[in-house]
Predict the structure.
Amino acid sequence: MLEVWCSPIMKSWTEEQRNALLQPSEMRSGEDMVSPERCYEYWTVRALARRLLTAKFGIPPGLVSFTHDRRGRPLIFVNHYRFSVHVSFSHSEDIVMVAACADESVGVDVERITRYPEKVANRMFSTAELRRLNRFDGVERDIEFFRVWTLKEAISKAWGLGMAMHFPQITVSRDALGWSTGCSWWTVSNGSLIASVAKVSAIQHQPKPTWYSLATVTAHMLHSETWRRMTS
């Protein structure tokens, strides 16, 4: 199983929603953050992860807690016992995303497509990636940059390296599944957002992930079971 769920950041929380989808320590941590936006992002990604675990594994949200391993990857505990499913979180402005994989470490990254940041590319892309990027112009180059960048970020999260990964040494290719990095990877875009997921894998040919987004308004997140499939 490899699934990716996304949701708009919930900016209005009832007491019922907070009690159902958050731990008391998470409520306090969110309230202590530097801005309401950061608080709502923190709460939403954890609520979304709990929704995913409830839908796929029947785990009541109140039994789920999160911590991190020594590499910063999220770990799931159910009723204080380590749960074997791997998860990864990402956010971009008003969107949060959660990837869950039942058997291997996973990484996800979502970005809003903006103008091509040349300085970032020059610092983080391999020579081969820059050479390919220079074949594009305008909006096409913007999209290609963020396609490659989200893949690199997803791979770094799957390996538990984060920004410690030596990004210029990793080359991602449109035509390959990333076998040279020990990962399988996929990308999806709706024109304004682009997201990638990478799964550490010992098997070269992997089934594609399933991507979901909320089909209802954010305020219905607590009660709605309606999810719209983005792609397969």
